[in-house]
Amino acid sequence: MNTSAKMEEGEVLRVKLEVLRYEHRDLDAAIDALHARGSADMLTLKRLKKQKLALKDKITQLQDRILPDIIA
């Protein structure tokens, strides 16, 4: 794999990471809005929180791919 292809892959990963972070923030805002409304459906909240956790896992995986831990 040449350097430009590797740079392109890195850029793609960074864009995906930003999209996932944006979705994570949106879910957080939706959960907060449901709590603030007071009439939150517990099943809906549970599903949103589960989606948010799955997004957080994907974000962590992408971050690890972009900046892998180096054991010194």
Architecture overview:
- The protein has helices at about 5-35, 40-65.
- The protein contains two helices and no strands.
- The chain is mostly helical.
- About 85% of the residues lie in helices and about 0% in strands.
- The chain is elongated, with a radius of gyration of 17 Å.
- The model has no long low-confidence stretch (mean pLDDT about 85).
- Helix 1 packs antiparallel against helix 2.
Secondary structure layout:
Blueprint: H1 3-37, H2 42-66
Helix pairs in contact: 1-2
Task: Name its key features.
72 residues, mainly alpha, 2 helices, 83% helix, elongated
Q: Roughly what is the average pLDDT, rounded to an integer?
A: 87
Distance between the termini: 26 Å
- Helix/strand structural class: mainly alpha
Low-confidence stretches: none
- Profile the largest sheet: none
Shape label: elongated
Radius of gyration over C-alpha positions, nearest whole angstrom: 17 Å
The quaternary organization reads as single chain
Helix content: over 70%
| Fraction in beta strands | under 5%
The SSE string, one letter per element, is: HH
Count of DSSP strands: 0
The number of helical elements comes to 2
